[in-house]
Amino acid sequence: MEEEGRKLLEEGIRKKLISPGRGELSNFPDGTKVVFHYRTSLSDGTVLDDSRTMGGRSKPMELILGKKFKLSVWERILITMKQGEVAEFTCDTKHTALYPLVSQSLRNISIGKDPLEGQRHCCGIAQIHSHHSLGHKDLDHLQANPQPLVFAIELLEVLTPGSFQLDMWAMTDKEQLDSVPQIHEEGNALFKEGKIKEAMEKYYNAIACLKNLQMKEHPGDETWIHLDQMITPLLLNYCQCQLLQGQYYEVIEHCSSLVFKYENNLKAYYKRGKAHAAVWNEKEARADFAKVVELDPSLEASVNKELKALEERLRSKKQEEKGRYKGLFDINTRPAAATTVSPV
Prior knowledge:
By secondary structure, this protein is of the alpha+beta class. It contains 13 helices and 6 strands. Strands 1, 2, 3, 4, 5 and 6 form a 6-stranded antiparallel sheet that branches. Helix 9 runs parallel beside helix 11 (266-278). The protein is elongated. It comes from Ilyodon furcidens (goldbreast splitfin). May play a positive role in AHR-mediated (aromatic hydrocarbon receptor) signaling, possibly by influencing its receptivity for ligand and/or its nuclear targeting. It catalyses: [protein]-peptidylproline (omega=180) = [protein]-peptidylproline (omega=0). Pfam families: PPIase_AIP. TPR repeats lie at residues 266-299.
């Protein structure tokens, strides 16, 4: 242990044992899966991320060793730990430069967004030296001012290669691409069973996989376009789930991105029209539904049904507001009654 600690110090990593683990230290061959909770802090104690609270839920991090994870220092410190161990690692700046990008992806994942959203089509080092905002003030500051970080790690589980099913992100590019149709079908089956949240997760995983592959291609190239065409039906299914979950503004955002690229995508217009109607955007809803009928006149009856429902909701809302504010600004013109005071 002392020898390992000395090696870490030479590499610019200081380990502080909080609670010892159990059993023997694994030899951690490539392909080992490690499951752990982490808390990332600045040297002054300011917490940046905590896997126990990120996204409003407690979800541990999982890594497959040897897969060249962007933040390589995590692999370095994890292989010094026993299962069940809790330790703090203070890591020099040379190990933490990419943390803002990693954190952005992990934060996106925790709230169900694309892990690559907001990242430019370039390598991590190039992004570090750009002035592109990561969408979080603390991460933007850290990116502009690299500094040592403290990682508090609890190693929950160590799984040897072959003892578990690979997650999507741990697969090769070919394995990921080949798995997408199956995941798509699993999502469809869950949707038919009424398991909307579970279906959403399947669609999201497939989309994230394809987006990851797409990031490796040049926008507009044949392979990039093919991947984008695979993403489109998955994203439309994801939007249908969001409609049922009441996530209307997210649907508007996703469908707007689709019609920007594919101006005749009927389903995108239809779903966006429903989302606009749900949030009282009457003008936008009517425009989208008009486009649907233009693209497919056979859907006129369905569109008329949606418009009728929208009009009824608007009338009900108007009546409700009228009743709510009735008399609010009325002026009482009756004179106040005089008060008689008896002499003492």
